[in-house]
Amino acid sequence: MPITRQRLVEQVIEYLRQQLRAQAYPVGSRLPPEPQLMAQLGVGRSTVREAIRALAHEGLLEVRQGDGTYVRAAAVAEPLATRLRQAKVNEVHEVRRALELEVVALAAERRTDDDLAVIRQWLAARSAALANGDTATALHADIELHCAIARATHNPILSDLYRMFATTLRDALGVLWDAAAPASDDRSHADLVAAIEAGDAAMAIAVTRQILARHDATLTAFRAGDDG
Q1: In whole angstroms, what is the distance from residue 221 CA to residue 168 CA?
Q2: Rg of the chain over all Cα atoms, to the nearest angstrom
Q3: What is the Cα–Cα distance from 134 to 203, expressed in whole angstroms?
Q4: Which of 39, 58, 87, 223 is most buried as measured by Cβ atoms within 10 A of its Cβ?
Q5: What is the pTM of this model?
Q6: d(CA 124, CA 111)
Q7: Rounded-to-integer distance, Cα 146 and Cα 189, Å
Q8: Rounded distance, CA 145 to CA 129, Å?
Q9: How many CB atoms lie within 10 A of CB 170?
Q10: Rounded CA separation 180/175 (Å)
Q11: Which of 15, 31, 20, 18 lies closest to 74, judged by CA?
Q12: What pLDDT score does 76 carry?
């Protein structure tokens, strides 16, 4: 795979973050000037500037015009987006359980007619794709369905958090669906949508627990296969 400019930026960000964690550049110190970083890392000026801009946005660096770039805080942990990309399937599943049980309950209590229209649209797309044996499209619709449910909570932070998590969830579900894709006659998601439509938070939670329990069983079988 060719190394794209965006991947270069991510690599420079990670390198600088590691240097900050190792205190190669203590808080309050100034980073080497751009030409030195460019020569040290073998990248162009725009790549260095974009990496510094990203770390400044995280609050780790401070760019002082005409003076240089200073270390504002130590990097004590990787950002959430990076950690999500590196997460194991079982870790993703545990986070999903914590998020979705709250999401479906709030959605059942707060959903509007507009929310329900979008939710039904993605449920129909998911069902049609499964019936056609198109698991890739079904998986995309599944993720969008759950994101639509998260939006129906009308909690923008929770909705944004779920959308951020959804990329990692898609990858984890892809692994599980390769092992055992949902049957085309599976009614669990239809039951979940019906519970949300009825405003029945308890039922929405119960159905979600059933869905998660099925994924637990698939995950257990998947891990057993890996051990074998």
Answers
A1: 21
A2: 22
A3: 29
A4: 87
A5: 0.63
A6: 18
A7: 10
A8: 13
A9: 16
A10: 9
A11: 20
A12: 58
What pLDDT score was predicted for residue 2? Answer: 37
Q: If DSSP states are collapsed to H, E and C, what string results for 111-152?
A: CCHHHHHHHHHHHHHHHHHHHCCCHHHHHHHHHHHHHHHHHC
**Position 3 confidence tier, pLDDT thresholds 50, 70, 90:** very low
Output the CA–CA distances (angstroms, integers) from residue 207 to 52, 129, 189, 196, in the order listed.
Answer: 46, 21, 8, 10
Average pLDDT, the chain: 86
Look at the block and give the residue holding tokens 């930026």.
Answer: 9
Q: What is the largest CA-CA distance in the chain?
A: 65
Distances (CA, A) of 148 to 18, 130, 133, 197, 218: 37, 19, 23, 13, 25
**Tell me: the pLDDT tens digits for 36-85?**
999 999 999 999 999 998 888 878 899 998 899 999 887 655 556 666 66
**What stretches of the chain show up as alpha helix (H) in DSSP?**
5-21, 34-41, 45-57, 80-85, 89-110, 113-131, 135-151, 156-179, 188-197, 201-227
Burial class (CB in 10 A: 0-12, 13-18, 19+), 219: buried
161-185 average pLDDT score:
77
Euclidean distance between CA atoms 50 and 58, whole angstroms: 13
pLDDT bucket at 177, cuts 50 / 70 / 90 = confident
Question: What is the Cα–Cα distance from 139 to 129, expressed in whole angstroms?
Answer: 9
pLDDT at 13 over 80: yes
